Amino acid sequence: YPLPEAQLDRFLFKHTLDYPSREEELAIVAQHGTRTGMKTAQGFGVDPVVSAEELAEAVASVAEARLQDDIIAYIVDIIRATRTSPALETGASPRAAAALATAARARAALDGRDFVIPDDVKLLALPALRHRVLLSPGAEIEGKTTDETLASIIEQTAAPR
Asked: Which of 2, 49, 53, 68 ranks highest by number of CB atoms within 10 Å?
């Protein structure tokens, strides 16, 4: 069932996934419902990459990543441009701006920086916004997609230098 707009806005990202390969699907069906089924990460052949302590440190480093005023303005300008785009019936909310800022901070921390750069925002804008906006009927008739529309908005919004 499609979620209402207010609920969609609570998700940080929307990623699109393909179906598993035939071999992966065979393994899924074979293991489903069995006592020895793949119920843990190790059952999928995946080993943990961080400890609980390392994860807590990573979360703390995200909160410490600085957002300069020009980066905040860049995020807000992208969000506001979604609201005035004729291709979008519904633009992104203030919650979308906050989510994009958090995602950009996380990207900076993952890259070992304590500050956000415009490329962090650009990289994460599509997954952070694609589920928060709605194409206008006219844009749909013209064959436009949400990702194309957002990519155009991001490209046209001046990034800080």
From this structure: 68
